[in-house]
Every structure is written in C-alpha cells, then in structure tokens.
Amino acid sequence: MGMFTLSFALVFVRSRNVPTALVLFLFGIIVAAARVAHAGEKIVFAAPDVHVVHFTQNDFKVGILEGAIPQVPTTLLNSCIAVCQLAEDLYPQRQTGVNVRSVSTSVGLINIIFCWFGGMPMCHGSGGLAGQHRFGARTNLSIIILGTCKFLLGLLFSAGLLELLKFFPQAILSALLALSSFELGAASRSGMSGSPDEIRAYLVTCCFTAFMGTSEGFVIGLVAYYLVAFFSMFVGSDEAIEEARSNMRTMKSDLVKYLTSIQPPTFSSRQWKRSSLSSS
Description:
This protein folds into 3 domains: 1-46 and 158-191, no CATH class; 48-156, no CATH class; 194-260, no CATH class. The protein has 11 helices and no strands. The chain has helices at residues 2-12, 20-39, 57-90, 100-114, 126-134, 140-165, 170-190, 196-211, 214-232, 238-261, 269-278.
C-alpha cells in the first residue's frame, strides 16, 4: 500500500485537477473504516467533554522539565526560524508579513490558552508548510478551509474520530510525510550556494538529526559548519579562503538578523491575522 500511495502521489502531485492529498486521505479513511468493521469495534461520534483542566504543582514541574525545556530547541528551529525562512524561499515575491517575532508569539499564545482546556501542543511547523505547498496550497484560503474543517470535526465528532484515526493506514501517512520531507529538503537545498562546506554541514546535520535528534543534529551541524569555515580561512586556495570568509560574514549577518527580530510583540491585529494564516 505504501508503494501504491507513493506512486500515486508522485504521478498526480503536480496535477491541477487531482487533489492528491485529499484523495489519499479519503482513501485512508475508507480503509480505516473497513478495518474498524473487520475488528468488530464500535465507534460513537460525539462532542468532546470540554472543561477546564486543574493542574497540580507536580504537573507544572513535569511539564516544564520533561516537556517544555527539551522542546524549546525544536520549537524555535522548526516552528519559528525554519518556517519563516521557508515562507520566504517558497514565496519570495510576496509580502507575507511572516517574521520570527510574530510566529513565536502566536505559538506561545495558542499553547498557553488551549492547555487549560486539554489542548495538545501546537505550532506552525515548517514541515506542515512544505507539505501544504507540495500538495497545491498557495493562498491563505487553503489554511482557512483546513482550520475550519478541523475545528468543526474536533468540536462535533472528536471522540469517534480519534478512535477511527487509530486504524488509519500508516503506509499512506508515511508516503505523505515522505513527500513533505522531500519538499522541505529541496527548499533548503535550493537556498545553498553548493559549496563543499555547505554540503558537508548539510549532510552532517541530516545524519545526526536522523540518528540522535533535532537538537543534537542542529548543534553538531552548526559546530561542524563553523569549524570547516574557520579552518578554510587559513588553508586552501585564495578563492577558497575568500569564500570561507564570505560565508562567515554571511552567518554573522544572519545571526544578527534573527536575534534582532526576536523582540516583544508590537504588531496590529491585521498583521497577526496575516502572519498566522501564512505560517500554519
């Protein structure tokens, strides 16, 4: 099923007439329903029991030490910095209004508000943006439609849908995630100059991220890039030395740009709406 799903997606992913992701999702729901019937399970679709969650002191301790702090590097990299850079790479001709400050603020507010009602942690992941772009989304309307559907389905049928999705074929989900990963990787590769230093850092980061985790991969890749760039400033040809120095200046400029963009939020409601819709 995985090979069939991946083949179908690769054939029709650029088609303007076939909504690839929607077709595969509906097919997966049909398969999940058939599996439920075969297993003899009974699913009751009902509205969720929404109530305010009362946290204990131990809940805060566990949540902060085991949840929030370990998640900080991944959230900052994927949900704030990477998604803003990806939006610029995918839509360079648009004034999206997306920046690290507004995105990080919206992510924080979403989680602070909905955690009191049992909401799961959420973010504007770059993988989600890459997947939406890969499967045809080009405007804010696609995000509005997606958000409305998810809100209504969760509000009206959440309990039954949760049980149904447990039977959703992992092969279909894996194929969709693989295509999203390819889109994200292609976007990052297109932003590179193709120099050996960048390719080495790219491969090192990918390998350590895959086998150790996002935080470890980021730190090791960053250290590897700086070490290679540093030593390249003193060895090699004149062209290589000048390129290494140029890369160091570029990295310094990018770092200053991101650090200065992280400031207390002072944007209007119009900017909030535009940035939130553009970076989901």
